[in-house]
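Entry for the shared binder. Reason: the reviewer on the internal report wants the predicted structure included alongside the sequence.
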Amino acid sequence: MSDNVQLPALGESVTEGTVTRWLKNVGDRVEVDEPLLEISTDKVDTEIPSPFAGVLEQILVQEDETVEVGATLAVIGTGEGGGASAPAEEAPAQETPAQQAPAEQPAAEAQPVQESVEEHEEPAEAPAQQAPAAQEQSSGGQGGGGGQEVTLPALGESVTEGTVTRWLKQVGDSVEVDEPLLEISTDKVDTEIPSPVAGTVQEIRVQEDETVEVGAVLAIVGSGAAAAPAPAAAPAPEAAPAEQAQPAPVPASAPAPQEQAPAPAAPQGGGYEAPAPEAESTQTTGAAPAAEQAAAQQPTASAAASAGGSYLTPLVRKLAAEKGVDVATLTGTGVGGRIRKEDVLEAAAKAEAAKAAQAAPAAAAPAAAAAPKAPTVPSVSPLRGTTEKASRLRQIIAERMVEALHTQAQLTTVVEVDVTKVARLRARAKDDFKAREGVNLTFLPFFVQAAVESLKAFPKINGVLEGNQITYHGQENVAIAVDTERGLLTPVIRDAGDLNLAGIARKIADLAARTRANKVTPDELSGATFTVTNTGSGGALIDTPIVPTGTSAILGTGAIVKRPVVVKDADGEEVIAIRSMCYLCLSYDHRLVDGADASRYLSAVKARIEEGAFEAEVGL
């Protein structure tokens, strides 16, 4: 009995997905919930686990193909219904007899090839015609003599085009199935496009920095020999033109079969290795050295793939360059041995620790001599003095920021807030809070709760003006700005007005962690009615954040610093005291929100924070 594996729903706004990589091949055993394949949507890449245990019998959707939610991806059963990859597996079986058959036994060479041809249900004619027929089937499985087109796959529901940022292979290079072929940049993500077939890059049709629509042909990958059939045939008449024209009647002499073997073997070998060197070696030394050369090329390709990582993303590559990490020395911990950013960061941390250990003895001598402390100078960035093209994601961010400023009348109002009571309360409760809730108690949940409570009282701040209609939302969906390696993302806490302080803290910690790990779902990155950005985490005192389109306001929280301020004591006298202070900055769309509205809203947030009545929320 066989079961169908379907593409599950990946989010409310996601209607389709693109298969980026199969983690299992036909014939492989798979367990329940074991990752089966990787799917890419417009906002997230994720793994699809197997809903059944059994043997992968068929793969119905190939890599780089886009299908709708609910489409059947594969068939899992007992293994008796397999056969989807049979033609691909028979090609090497046809190749071996054609290349290794002895010249003294032409009949023995024809028999295995004839069996393979019969398995493909091809009509069996003369033995001399069966080897070319087998070659046509082998190359036909990879797109025919003219090669197979590599098109730009669908990368998400809202993504209609992509820009080629870099070709990882050049014309004439050999490429394996699933080996990264080029890098594509879209408005939301930079990703690598793997080759759907093995062979040789025959033609590159879209150059770097060119933008094309989804479905456009990027390159041609084929057998290699198909790209230059005329030059390959030109030298042949010099050796034996009559013998190549009529291969069947020439089994008697030894040189003739040696010249026949390269002719059928070249297109087959070209589908998997570099064909030109193989053709030259077979003309001079025969099939055995050609097999040795192919075996030598295979480890070289696999070593390069393992050194660069089968899926070494632009983000990881850039991070490795910035950290000075040699990816060839890393062992990937991701799926299929993929090198992840965590691997690079861990290697960089180990390198820093080793440098610190070496520098410790050297630092001891100046300390003993009471030498003046060396100044702390930031390390020089490798980007200094260079020029690079902005990534597609950065270009889209730039366009949207300018669009937001051009479509809204934005300005910023700032108030100063005394957070001393909150700071003292947090210091008392943070240990018990972490033990009870499992997350750290930071200042941000206090600000978010105060902001959400005030949004209910001042719905204009949570509303939006569209044309001549004003919508006052009935829920508070608060986006939290999260700094990631990819850039600034804003996952959304839905219905934040229904959560208490502990619930908000858990949501912030969960969304931030999954966003940085690229595990957040598409629906969690959309639908915000208000945004909070903690610019103080970087030490900034005051900021003027830009209001995202589709909303009317964004609240920025500055760094909390201790400084002397004038306050009133218990007797009502003014005294100077050390207090924990910060600035709250509200940017808003002046088309809907007036300055008085912004001031009243900020005053409500300020009063809630300075009151510091959160004891029940933190369990005190």
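Summary line for the report: DSSP finds 18 helices and 27 strands in the chain.
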